[in-house]
Amino acid sequence: MSLTLYDTATRALAKVSSTKDLTTIYCCGPTVYRDAHVGNLRTFLLSDLVRRTLELSGIKVKLIQNITDVGHMSEDLESEDKMLAQAKSEKTDPFAVARKYEARFHADLHNLNIRPADAYPRASESIDLMQTMIQELIEKGFAYVGDDKTVYFSAESFPGYGAISGNRLDALKPGHRYEYTEDGAKRFHADWALWKNAGERREMIWNSPWGAGFPGWHIECSAMSLDLLGGHINLHIGGIDLRFPHHENERAQSNAITGNESVDLWLHGEHLLFEGRKMSKSSGNVVLLTDVINRGFDPLAIRLCFLENRYRSQMDLTWAAIEAADATIKRWRKKIAIWGINEIDSSTEFLKIIENDLDTPRALQFLRNVEKDESHANRSGVFLFADQILGLDLARREEVKPLNQLQEALLAKREIARNEKRWEESDDLRQQLEATGLEIKDSSSGQTWDWL
Ligand code: AMP
Ligand code: ZN
């Protein structure tokens, strides 16, 4: 069996490749100038789902996710480094800002049961690596030093530009903001900065052969992915907004260095909306995982909400959906405890559904059918197998509030009434139990109860 995913570059489903028995994955990480919102987390979950699926089918995975702590320019006209702008507003050092939000990012991943990547390289600690790559690009004729002492990648020097996004150079018109920072000394409007001259900037700058400055955002991912994944990336993951220019530029840089197609498959996760609108500060609808926890929900309810939608469709999240997912997880945990934890049932059917382009909505439907199937011999085994990918902690025992004396007595009385086929009395007792907050269900094996 093997995993197929939708490749943005070829616009078709493709098998995830591996080199020997190892699949190398690079997932663009957070820019640590603020908390990640649940939209960002949807994209980070995508790499976790891919990784868990591959590992369950016996493939080894090496996953790298970078931490952008320098060089990501904000999109407003000021075009300021996001880290420096936030440090100014928090009246602190930009590195302190970076470490604070990086720690919170890891806490979010932990709360969402996202397994840690094999490494989280920081841009600010990979400056030498980037400078070496920039030097090589200059030597190979793909980059040049502008009059402003900024080093630019020459888009025209790379023949296959535009393959991921479809934005071919001849269609890219001057004036469009491809790169937020500078028009400066670029020779061509679609060129972008690899190394920016410090100018007036005093913080987060480093020496370089081209003068003091700091790296561009795109070169970071090329340098880290090629260095840490042995010069070839089987699968590259990010949110759909990164398709252009970030991934287009990254592809040009990496391929210029390696001389071949450095990434086999470009995977993009669609965006998350909240209550119908794109999640953003300006819409005022940013939701953090800590908001979900503070409202008393299990953070894994968010994970289930994401799984209810396929990664490449836009999805709309609401508080009602989170509440419903929270209830579903609790129900499944209780049922699994009642069914009894048996051997894990290696359900090839479940894996087959997931391996078909991560069809998590169908996989959940499959589980709901198993849930309803009273004749199934090992329902908990199937759920626990699935949970190795779903990551919903379904084996966890839910705290069940104990029954009070009245409820115990009514249940005992009702059982006797049922055994003696006194149905009217049994119905009456059911109503009394429901009035105390219990839900009563009858089946051939007897009555069961649950808190309403
Ligand atoms: P950033 O920290 O802004 O660099 O974004 C981190 C990741 O989150 C990137 O892969 C983005 O493409 C992704 N992302 C940003 N906004 C959303 C959203 N609303 N839904 C899903 N992914 C998003
Ligand atoms: Zn990236």
Automatic annotation (TrEMBL):
GO terms for biological process: cysteinyl-tRNA aminoacylation. GO terms for cellular component: cytoplasm. This is Cysteine--tRNA ligase. Keywords: Aminoacyl-tRNA synthetase, ATP-binding, Ligase, Metal-binding, Nucleotide-binding, Protein biosynthesis, Zinc. Residues 407-449 form the Cysteinyl-tRNA ligase anticodon binding domain. Transmembrane segments: none annotated. HAMAP family: Cys_tRNA_synth. Its EC number is 6.1.1.16. Coiled coil: none annotated. Its cofactor is Zn(2+). The keyword Zinc applies. SUPFAM superfamilies: Anticodon-binding domain of a subclass of class I aminoacyl-tRNA synthetases (SSF47323), Nucleotidylyl transferase (SSF52374). The keyword Plastid does not apply. It is an enzyme of class 6 (ligase). One of its GO terms (molecular function) is metal ion binding. NCBIfam families: cysS. Residues 20-325 form the tRNA synthetases class I catalytic domain. InterPro entries: Cys-tRNA-ligase (IPR015803), Cys-tRNA/MSH_ligase (IPR024909), CysS_C (IPR056411), Rossmann-like_a/b/a_fold (IPR014729), tRNA-synt_1_cat_dom (IPR032678), tRNAsynth_Ia_anticodon-bd (IPR009080).
